[in-house]
Amino acid sequence: MSCSFITAVTQDVLMKAEFALLAWFMRRCIRQPGRTVTTGRGRRFPPPKDLPARKLCPSKDMEGQCPQEANGSHPEQSEERLPTSDLAMDAGSCAGPVQTGETVIAEGKAKIIFPSANEVFYNPVQEFNRDLTCAVITEFIRLQLSAKGIQIAVPGEEKVEKVVVDLSEGEEAGSEPAPDEEGAARAVAAVGEVCKEGVRILEALAASGLRSIRFAKEVPGLRAVVANDFSSKAVELMARNVQFNGVGHLVTSSLADARMLMYQQKAEKHPFDIIDLDPYGSPATFLDAAVQAVSEGGLLCVTCTDMAVMAGNSGETCYSKYGAMSIKGKFCHEMALRIILHSLDLRANCYQRYIVPLLAVSADFYIRVFVRVFTGQATVKASASKQALVYNCVGCGTHHFQRLGKMTSHGSNFKYSAASGPPVGPSCEHCHQRHQLGGPMWAEPLHDPAFVQRVLSALGSNPGRFGTQDRIQGVLSMVTEELSDVPLYYTLDCLSSTIHCNTPSLLQFRSALLHAGYRVSLSHACKNAIKTDAPPSVLWDIMRCWERLHPVKRERLSDTSPAFHILSVEPTLQASFTVREDANPKSRKQGLKRFQENPEAYWGPKARAKAGGGISTSLQDKRKLHQNKRKERAEDGGHLKNIPCKRLKEGSGAGAEKCCPSPEPAPEPVKTDSPPQ
Ligand SMILES: C[S@@+](CC[C@H](N)C(=O)[O-])C[C@H]1O[C@@H](n2cnc3c(N)ncnc32)[C@H](O)[C@@H]1O
Ligand SMILES: [Zn+2]
Fold first, then answer.
1. I want to staple 669 with a disulfide (CB 3.0 to 4.6 A). Which of 1, 301, 323, 384 is the partner?
2. Do 102 and 111 form a contact (C-beta atoms < 8 A)?
3. Is the CB of 151 under 6 A from ligand 1?
4. Which ligand is nearest to the CA of 392?
5. Phi-psi bin for 38: left (phi > 0), alpha (psi -120 to 50), beta?
6. Which residue has its alpha carbon closest to ligand 1 atom 10?
7. What was the pLDDT predicted at 22?
8. In this predicted structure, what is the pLDDT of residue 598?
9. Residues of the chain with pLDDT under 50
10. 358 in ligand 1 pocket by Cβ < 6 Å?
């Protein structure tokens, strides 16, 4: 199958595929009452590798199994009500027992009633996203409350070794605990209880309410959670779920357009400490309201699933949504992270605000970023110098950055000016091909390593807190190893395919860079990534040395090809490929779960629920639409132009892009099985 075809259809097909399979699975489950089925163990429905056994129980099984609190009011009913929204619903008003044909899904500590039709969005593959969010906001709240002298009690947590970390920005409040005279914290906030000094969360796009309910049942230190959706069916179900889980004292369901709700809350000076945006596709339309409605130093948690757009399939659409051109490159997944950060910062800048990223993760078919938002005119002036354009050579993938602004220090003051450039000539100095221009993108660190370390330490002291904990720990460990001052990366397969030679092992290549005196790291966003502070000329010298040891047939190279130009130059560096002990990163040595295999057929974004129920286009319809297209493309030779991103090849993420120009034939398509009938 042609790679360009994959790129064109993968997103759409996978958007719909999840639903078809889930719907089939739910029907099957309902057809066999009395049988408890776990999504993780079915023979024909192989398990997500890091997902726990999730019980999908037919309603018959669940009747009478509502949590104790479900039918009664919680002793500590919250007085929190949205002052702005006439539409806010009383969570208790429409609660009822699970009805015939409905299914209860358990995830984390929540149990969610799910109707048999896909009237309300539920995507089980986003469990990692929800687990990670619970882990991150727990640490955020721990820091916020410890500054007020309040400790949080996380069930299952052993005594956490305190890690000193300063989350403050400029002169903002420090994050150190404020112990009393005995050195002990003054108060303890427990899970499931209203903490009057705790945080107020908005889940702006809440669907079934699962995420908000998980917050209420798994994260301590909450004052209130507002679970909002503009679908009345979603809100109706959400309210029942809130009641069903006995969290009506913490979670208020709200029926409103998320933007209006955020603007109103901002206007009424009632900002949220945490805002979670988890939309279908792009969050772009919600960003302006979100950067305003979040409190000072508050946390925005943002998902983007429009990876085709963000990873370069449609640069012009990316520009219209995020104010940045995306380009196809092996680094597209990290570039997507940097584009959303750029967009968030730019929108915040309009209101004299700016972002400070805590964590930015690329996973499966989506990206998820956690950023704090602060106000400060002086810091906003530095924003232009935090963004960069990227020049990417279409022949060899060499890339260079061009910052948009320059910030120079003069004693204790800073001077801001336009940056000078460009950093490249009219064509690539290595292969003589042209450059594509991408960005602007965020060019500063993606993560706050100290904060990520806190999340890791907390997880380490609380084994089994989350179903996807192994993967969270693996990904975050990689995140802490990433070179924070090196945007984007190269990949080994792209470097070697450019010069048509075989590929050195990761350890050999990393050793060569270390021997030459440079730093190198992997990236959580791509399996074969090489992040290094070595200039591109050094990378190509290393590849030239490798080619001398593993010669390619020069006579076969066209004299205009990138390989010909690169190999025509003598290396100035004598690379050593002797493997060094420090070439193997800790997360790799420890065998942590860093990249997950494609856990099931049709893994990917789920179909958008249609207003009034159902999904917009079935997978089968989509399939018919695209029938035989793969064959046609394979025959027209178009597949010779690009090789796909490994993530697609290995099936660990939908929406992976073809990234690197290559004369190599494209690999065979990823095979997907039909859902059992
Ligand atoms: C991807 S789902 C949310 C999933 C949920 N966060 C979770 O973790 O299970 C997106 C939801 O956003 C809702 N939505 C879309 N546009 C909206 C808007 N402008 N205001 C409020 N809700 C909206 C949809 O009805 C849908 O239920
Ligand atoms: Zn080049």
1. 1
2. no
3. no
4. 2
5. beta
6. 279
7. 38
8. 53
9. 1-95, 160-183, 185, 610-620, 623-624, 626-677
10. no
Please give the pLDDT value at position 164.
Answer: 40
The answer to whether 360 and 366 have CB atoms below 8 angstroms apart is no
Q: Find out whether the beta carbon of 278 lies less than 6 Å from any atom of ligand 1.
A: yes
Mutate to test the pocket of ligand 1, among 123, 226, 229 (most ligand atoms within 8 A of CB): 229
Kindly state if the Cβ of 129 falls inside 6 Å of ligand 1: no
Give me the residues near ligand 2 (ion), CB cutoff below 5 Å.
393, 395-396, 398, 428, 430-431, 433
Q: Which helix (H) or strand (E) holds 522?
A: strand 520-523
Residue 475 Cα to ligand 2 midpoint, Å, equals: 31
The pTM (predicted TM-score) of the whole model is: 0.79
Cβ–ligand 1 distance for 391 under 6 Å, the answer no
Is the minimum distance from the CB of 126 to ligand 1 under 6 angstroms?
A: yes
| 134, 157 Cβ separation under 8 angstroms | no
* CA–CA distance, 493 with 506 (Å, rounded to integer): 10
What's the 581 CA to ligand 1 centre distance in angstroms? 48
Q: What is the pLDDT of residues 483-539, one digit of tens each?
A: 999 999 999 999 999 999 999 999 999 999 999 999 999 999 998 999 999 999 999
pLDDT confidence of residue 364: 86
What is the distance, to the nearest Å, from the Cα of residue 478 to the centroid of all Cα atoms in its chain? Answer: 14
Query: What Å distances lie between residue 146 and 57, 138, 175, 194, CA to CA?
Result: 40, 12, 7, 16
| Identity of the residue numbered 305 | T
Q: Does 15 sit in the ligand 1 pocket, CB within 6 Å?
A: no
Q: Which of 628, 629, 604, 608 is nearest to 618 (CA)?
A: 608
- Using CA of residue 562, residue 563, residue 565, residue 571, what is the dihedral sign? positive
Q: Measuring CA to CA, how many Å separate 558 from each of 286, 393, 564, 663? A: 50, 18, 7, 11
pLDDT number for residue 463: 94
Tell how far the Cα of 278 is from the centroid of ligand 1, in angstroms.
7
Tokens of 42: 């079915």
Predicted confidence at residue 590, as pLDDT, reads: 80
